[in-house]
Amino acid sequence: MTTLIGPPDTDLGNSGMTGSDLLRELLPVCETEVERHMKMTRDWHPHDYVPWDDGRNFAALGGHDWDPSQSRLSDVAKAAMITNLLTEDNLPSYHRVIADNFTLDDAWGWWVGRWTAEENRHSIVMRDYLVVTRGVDPVELEEIRMAHMTSGFNPLPDDDGQRDHSFDMLFAVAYVSFQELATRVSHRNTGKACGDPIADRMLQRVAADENLHMLFYRNIVAGALDLVPDQTMAAIHAIVTNFQMPGATMPNFRRNAVLIAKGGIYDLPQHMSDVVMPVLRKWRIFERDDFGPIGEHYRELLAEFLEQMDIKVRKFEESRERALERQRAREQRTQ
């Protein structure tokens, strides 16, 4: 468990700014980002991305229930689609965290509503696609959805009562800065793994949304770094070193995560090279000169963590290469 307090004799709240003050000071950034988002985004309709001609009734309406032979998806693609969809399904949990840590007034409240509405399209289109094409068992999918949404998900690290919760907004926006980018990577790679141009087009559309959402949150964090660099650095460190994908609490997540990693859809090297490091570079974390003792403390801890992750990435890649060599050897023996 990462400690979320500063070094001895320091106080994360010593900026003299409260959480409400921070939201007020960041409001111009939020307004700018809302305007940018609305210029860049384009509306789309989930029904345009679903092959409805493939659909047919299930047994309750006189048809036939799902059978594994009906799915055209590989095991890897099924695991990724289920994990990605159930992640999108848990939107009420994410909405609650964002709404609780922002405000429903002004541009903040408008963004909470707009972001939630855009995110909801993702679960709509993915479920429609999977049910119509019979890509996965719809009964199992619904049972897992019920379990996952009942348990919920809180992205903020447990602080054992040590964190100044008036700054939880920083932890929330730091988390989604990385998480939105992670989902973009996962959705794009899942679309390719499906082997279906319709699924690929659908998930490219979803990934485009995720990228715009990432830009909004990443730029809010950039504004916070200018206002309260030490507190923001503490939040970034806590999120990066405790990061979990929002599907971590769903049933069968570990098994599916292994399949997803082996399939090259989302793994540790991608997490570090395509998600963590690009965001940290954009924030100029290791070039900034405006940190006080607290910020410097957490920047040093983050640098140590990244060094450890580099070692883990190398071990992962070496292990994967050995596994591929064994697979190639088996294929040669059977030829």
TrEMBL record:
InterPro entries: Fatty_acid_desaturase-2 (IPR005067), Ferritin-like_SF (IPR009078), RNR-like (IPR012348)
Known partners and oligomeric status: Homodimer.
Binding residue positions for Fe cation 1: 88, 119, 122, 210
Name assigned to this protein: Acyl-ACP desaturase
GO cellular component: cytosol
GO terms, molecular function: metal ion binding; stearoyl-[ACP] desaturase activity
Phylogenetic classification of the source organism: Bacteria, Bacillati, Actinomycetota, Actinomycetes, Mycobacteriales
Record's keyword terms, sorted: Fatty acid biosynthesis, Fatty acid metabolism, Iron, Lipid biosynthesis, Lipid metabolism, Metal-binding, Oxidoreductase
Family: Belongs to the fatty acid desaturase type 2 family.
Pfam family, one: FA_desaturase_2
Residues reported in the UniProt entry to bind Fe cation 2: 119, 180, 210, 213
Cofactor(s) annotated in UniProt: Fe(2+); Fe cation
GO annotation, biological process: fatty acid biosynthetic process
PANTHER family: ACYL- ACYL-CARRIER-PROTEIN DESATURASE-RELATED, STEAROYL-[ACYL-CARRIER-PROTEIN] 9-DESATURASE 7, CHLOROPLASTIC
Gene3D superfamilies tied to this protein: Ribonucleotide Reductase, subunit A
Manner of cofactor binding, per the entry note: Binds 2 iron ions per subunit.
